[in-house]
Amino acid sequence: MKSVHLNKYSAFVGIDWADQKHDICVQLAESDEREFSQIGSSPESISAWLEELHLQCQGKIAIAVELKQGPIVYALQQFDYVTIFPVEPTTLARYRETFSLSAAKDDPTDAQYALELMLRYPDKVKPLELEREELRTLKRLVESRRKFVNDRRRLANRLICCLKHYYPQILELFAHRDTDLFCEFILRWPSLQFVKAAQKRTIRHFFNKRGGPCVPRTELRIQALYQARELTDDWAVLMPHQLEAMALAGQLLHLSKAIRIYDKEVKALFNTMPDAELFGSLPGAGACLAPRLLVAFGEKRERFSSAEDVQQLAGIAPVTQRSGKKCWVHFRWQCSKFVRQSFVEWAEKSVNYSTWACAYYQRSRAAGKPHQVAVRALAFKWIRVLYRCWKSHTLYDEERYVQQLQLRGSPLVTG
């Protein structure tokens, strides 16, 4: 039985998407019969199929698909008579297991199950609501940027491991091993032999022309490098590792350049957002985390009815399972990992900028909680504070919040 909310649609479709083809299950509004078919994954195939279906049903089409974003979703969004109903993959998998104890799986059947979930549970499978184009752009920018940052960390770790095999002295002279300065030094002098063959004034000029905090340590670095002893003179070790180090250093330089381009685009777009000032006022958020927190909340105030909704979305709120006399509280696995990472990283940063956050973290650590547990607990509290600010369009004020804690006699400010 279809819900009254679905009465405006003339056709209902379930799609099981794949890379090369999509399996389709179609049910017209005035019929209980279902028709199965298969279409290609190309934009032309999707467009031709939808136009034919629209001519047949002469109305709006509701489509259930196991995605919130992706090629098939982007293709369907172009048609104003199509409404997309995202189905959670885990929900679909559990629904399938209900009717197939053998765990058998078939693409047309999955398309039918997606269709059934949309029709039977409209209060659970809700239509996809798009945010403003600017906000969706910002979301993809910050997510892509974070992936490049992860790639940079991975390559930096590989570079460190490589240098330990033949050039360990250089690691003692640079505190940060993913900077342009470090990578350019490796490309210029990929081993200790190259350093000792160079003139001191050349190395001195390399550091001094870049300025900054590296200048005062230039002479110490030069002296240490000239006095250093090679770990090995085995060419079978030196040559392959030199090539690997130079390749990794080159990739790191390109990644760092790409990240700076992202930073520029994110900053420009973030500053145009109505809530930019609100999220920019958060202690420790800075230029990187403030945009990520903004896209986590979005701009639609009706999206969340309470701070608990945000905590659950972010995976910060724990999950409680009860059965008889047993009760188990555990980490939340099903959530947006990127959103959780954004809140946890911000909570960790806020310890250095907020007095009450620092006090809360220290009390948690003193109580024996590990660092990550203490930071997640702090993020849990921060979400409640930020939710109130976001809901009321109010900038966060550290002094005002501390005063409220004092009025309530909170141990975080009374000692």
Automatic annotation (TrEMBL):
PANTHER family: PUTATIVE TRANSPOSASE FOR IS117-RELATED, TRANSPOSASE FOR INSERTION SEQUENCE ELEMENT IS1111A. Residues 13-168 form the Transposase IS110-like N-terminal domain. InterPro entries: Transp_IS110-like_N, Transpos_IS110, Transposase_20. It holds the Pfam family DEDD_Tnp_IS110. Residues 277-362 form the Transposase IS116/IS110/IS902 C-terminal domain. This is IS110 family transposase. It comes from the Bacteria.
